[in-house]
Here is the input.
Amino acid sequence: MLQWLSAILATLAVGGLATWLAQGPLRRRDETAAGIAALSALSWREFTGIVLEALSKRGYQRVDDRGNPSGDADYTLVRDGEHWLLSAKHGSAYVLGRPSVNELAAAMSLAGAVGGLLVTQGAIDDDGRAAAKGRPIELLDGPVLWPWLRPLLPGSVVSPIVASAAKHARERSLAGWLLALLVGVGVFSLGFLSPSAPATATPSPPAAAAAMDAPAGQTATDGTDDAAAPKQEAPGAAPDANPDAATLEAQRRELASTVATLPMVLRAIWTSSSTLEIFLGDTSDDPVAAICPLVERYPALASSRIQLTPPADSGKPVRFRQCRSY
Here is the structure.
């Protein structure tokens, strides 16, 4: 269930982000770029005429103008009885900087204007913006002009631009959701690859377990150095109730190995010094009756907590038991 939920959340997150980018910033960027190109395709008289119309809605009135077919035009405007100077640079290739701002400021001084407007479909660089700072000069470049002038353009110009931007946005959204689906599948697959429990190999029975099961007088060896091996109980003797650390660890291994031999048990591992987790393969019978006698053979481990983990697809919960209380 957690794998499905993680995969769905990952898919929705990636798909939602892709849709927002496609329908928001990227769509506006495409529309603005196409709009600037459309404004640049106008003649300089058409462009300045639309700019003057837009400025008239802000209270500016045209007084006189002087222009030339090169695409540059200066217009004197009046608002609230004060003169303003409009400098229009027609063409998206323009990158205006400090010289253009200083030129407009000088023209304002000669014309006795209180302020100026520098307009272009191109761009105004950081140096130009720094030069205009603190001066009564308004800078209007391509990204600002398009949303401002768009309502004044005919539908035959605007509609194809909007339709093209919308088409690209839909294509990007679809690609984003396909990517989101791949991400969701990847997240779901990673959930299967992650083990539900620590995967540890079942330790082989140590020499002491073999000695306990062997006939009297028969010695079991595992090929290890006797001097390095922990102290083991003599065959047939009851395990020590207060063993040293090495012997206690050996008893844990012996108990896990012995429990793992039961028919209903897949494997048994110690998840902590006091918890023995037993993975069950068959839950039709209660395994406690078979497990506890094996646990109680070791007085030092008899009060350990037993965690019974059923198969993942059984639908049954994990249970905890204790063969002997402290």
Remarks:
- The radius of gyration is 42 Å.
- Residues 67-72, 197-235 have pLDDT under 50 and may be disordered.
